[in-house]
Specification:
Elements (H helix, E strand, L loop, with lengths): L10 H7 L3 H13 L18 E2 L5 E2 L6 E2 L14 H13 L6 H8 L3 H12 L13 E9 L24 E13 L5 E11 L5 H11 L5 E4 L14 E4 L6 E3 L6 E3 L1 H17 L7 H13 L5 H12 L7 H4 L6
Parallel strand pairs: 4-7, 7-8
Antiparallel strand pairs: 1-2, 2-3, 4-5, 5-6, 9-10
Length: 332
């Protein structure tokens, strides 16, 4: 049968299995095109089926006569690095909660820092968020500003007089978080939040309202602070709850319990990832880091083997990380 990824619950289990090029190639071929009788290799160039395997292990398309390998069109394609190193890198990247720096990865898999940076760059591109899903139930919206001396401070922690929402030197990032629940391995219900975030041009109503409209389902309860841009959210088929700027506490009216702002937890996770790991990120590269932070946040309750399986599936283009998957153990 197919490879059982649940066995890779440690780096040791994983490296003992994927210890040569052949095994790694087979994993890609099987996951991409099936195996044995079921195998149907599709030509990446012309889309024809039933390509034949050559003696050198490559595939040949009888239709357009091109030869290709299992790596074609995937993140491993243009590099001479062994797949063993790629697989170990994917495992390390997916298992680090706060990200891994190119220097650390270079030491761990014995490549140059430049190569490690390239690998991280390729893997980060796999994290792009899924634009086709909507957030439901209760959703918190909040924005942070990145840049300048006050780079990583949320608005509740800034020094006085730097609080103007002037974006001359800062890049605004807008986040939305669905509060949900999953059933954990022990069968207990636990709180889970699912986040999406993006670089925005500014935090005006004209910019934020269409984003809210696109990503948040109808009749959802939307929690925000009192930023003017949110003034008309209540007119958009949402229930709008505003929390005091200073308090940043949301009261959940169903059971009366008070939540502090959960999305702040995400912003501090994001801040830790950048400052602890990547130090300085230029604005034009910011979105891929945000995508990575969202992926790490949304998969934080998964087992390491599950996260590696997701990463592997994404690397050959089969898996889209989506809300249904993350909240698959969701309680009705």
């Amino acid at each position: 049968g197919m490879i059982d990824f649940s066995q890779f619950n440690s780096i040791i289990a994983m490296t003992m299995y994927f210890n040569n090029e052949e095994t790694c190639k087979n994993a890609i071929v099987e996951t991409r095109w099936g195996k044995g009788e079921q195998q149907d290799v599709v030509c990446p160039y012309c889309g024809e089926h039933h390509c034949v395997i050559r003696k050198d292990g490559k595939f040949r398309c009888n239709h357009c006569k091109r030869n290709f390998s299992c790596k074609v069109g995937k993140i491993f394609e243009d590099s001479n690095l062994s797949l063993v190193k790629w697989f170990i890198a994917m495992y390390l990247i997916s298992s680090h909660k706060n990200g891994i720096s190119s220097y650390q990865l270079a030491r761990d898999i014995k490549v140059t820092q430049k190569t490690a940076w390239y690998m991280l760059h390729k893997v980060r591109a796999l994290y792009a968020q899924n634009d086709s899903e909507s957030l439901e139930g209760k959703v918190e919206c909040d924005e942070v500003y990145i840049g300048g001396k006050e780079k990583w401070k949320h608005k509740s922690m800034r020094t006085p007089n730097t609080q103007g929402r002037s974006t001359k030197t800062k890049t605004p990032v807008f986040g939305m978080m669905e509060r949900s629940e999953i059933v954990n391995a022990k069968g207990e219900t636990e709180f889970m939040s699912y986040v999406r975030a993006m670089v925005v041009e500014n935090t005006n109503r004209a910019t934020l309202e269409p984003i809210i409209g696109q990503f948040i389902g109808e009749w959802v309860t939307v929690f925000t602070d009192e930023l003017n841009a949110y003034n008309h959210v209540g007119e958009m088929r949402y229930t709008h709850r505003i929390c005091n700027h200073g308090a940043l506490q949301f009261v959940c009216e169903d059971d009366g319990s008070v939540y502090t702002n959960n999305i702040e937890g995400f912003w501090s996770h994001f801040r830790r990832m950048i400052t602890g790991c990547y130090h300085d990120v230029s604005d034009e590269h910011l979105q891929p880091y945000i995508d990575e932070a969202c992926f790490r946040w949304n998969t934080r309750k998964m087992a390491e083997s599950e996260r590696f399986s997701q990463m592997f599936g994404k690397s050959i283009g089969l898996v889209k990380i989506n809300k249904e998957f993350v909240l698959c153990r969701k309680v009705a």
